[in-house]
Amino acid sequence: MRVVMFGYQTWGHRTLQALLDSEHDVVTVVTHPKSEHAYEKIWSDSVADLAEEHGVPVIIRNRPDDEELFDLLKAADPDIIVANNWRTWIPPHIYSLPRHGTLNIHDSLLPKYAGFSPIIWALINGEQEVGVTAHMMDEVLDAGDIVDQRAVPVGPKDTATDLFHKTVDLIAPVTVGALARIAVGETEFTKQDRAQASFFHKRSEEDIRINWDWPADVLERLVRAQSAPYPSAFTFHRGKRLEILAATVSEGRYGGTPGRIFYREGEGVVIVAGADARTGRNHGLAITRVRTEDGHELPATEYFTSMGGYLTSRA
After folding, report:
1. For the Formyl transferase C-terminal domain, which residue ranges apply (predicted)?
2. Of 38, 53, 92, 291, which has the most beta carbons under 10 Å away?
3. Is 200 helix (H, G, I), strand (E, B) or coil?
């Protein structure tokens, strides 16, 4: 098939590479300009550079809604558009232009975790598996019929970075597998159960701020979700920002006020956590490694030279 590809960052790069390695003919690539947004500078392999290396025409757009782009796409005469990590709305006259419509590749197990940053949100929420879905695009974001979907388990110590590497390796087989079904004329695919759907927003600074009213197991997953190269989860100690680089759920149960710097346990320092921590039934968050406001990284047992005082959500 003749394919136009819409994509950005490493997800788009992997999709384009899979298409270039396939039997299909990539006739045009549409991608975004480079961004200074913190999350868009992560996993930033260039779709434009890969396309140009293979002699594929490249169109740069923030939004695909101008007449010139539509004329260029019509001239490319695609059988299908394949999109992955396209960051803005694709209007109906674009996604319905090709003979077979538009196939979107999304890094979650739809219908759950439509929208943005699905791996991070899924890890924070304690999901047991994550994955990649290829679905036909329609008027509702990430809601079209599923053509192919593959999953990987979430390990007890997996970070968002680990899960990125696990899921990005699924892009090629999911994309090529979905296209194989479409190329032979299949048109009946799996409807999404909208009762199971969830939609998540882009992550920002506020989403990585630690709230000590959260249970320790959720905070431990937040720390793993915000693993390098993502911005680290942070709190404040004595009015200064403190990034939490590694932590575990405490073995013991600790009662008191959330945020209290309480007790050394093993290689960590336990912070009281959970809105109902006063009951004494909660585990705490055992912080093991931190980074100070001036960028100094050290074990928590060296940073917290004495117990007492509080970590807070704001300075």
Report:
1. 204-306
2. 291
3. strand
**Residue-wise DSSP of 207-270:** GGB--TTS-HHHHHHHHHHT-TTSPPEEEEETTEEEEEEEEEEEEEE--SSTTBEEEEETTEEE
Total length of the chain:
315
The token duo for 235 is 């709190």
**How far is 129 from 142, CA to CA, in rounded Å?**
19
Which residue pairs from 295-298 have beta carbons closer than 8 angstroms and sit at least 24 positions apart in sequence? 297/245
Q: Show Cβ contacts of residue 224 under 8 Å, excluding neighbours closer than 6 positions.
A: 123, 157, 158, 159, 160
Beta strands at 283-291 and 297-299: parallel, antiparallel or unpaired: antiparallel
d(CA 131, CA 115) in angstroms, rounded, equals 14
Distance between CA 90 and CA 138 in Å, rounded?
10
Q: pTM to 2 decimals? A: 0.94
Determine the Cα–Cα distance for residues 120 and 163; give it in Å rounded to an integer: 9
pLDDT class for 24, splitting at 50, 70, 90? very high
- Section 30-34 average pLDDT: 95
- How far is Cα 175 from Cα 115, in angstroms, rounded to an integer? 19
Cα separation, 262 vs 284, in Å, equals 9
| 216 phi/psi in degrees, rounded to 5 | -60, -35
Count of C-beta atoms within a 10 Å radius of residue 38:
13
CA atoms within 13 A on the CB side of 209: 12
C-alpha–C-alpha distance, residues 103 and 84, integer Å: 9
Is the confidence at residue 93, as pLDDT, over 90?
A: yes
Burial class (CB in 10 A: 0-12, 13-18, 19+), 176: middle
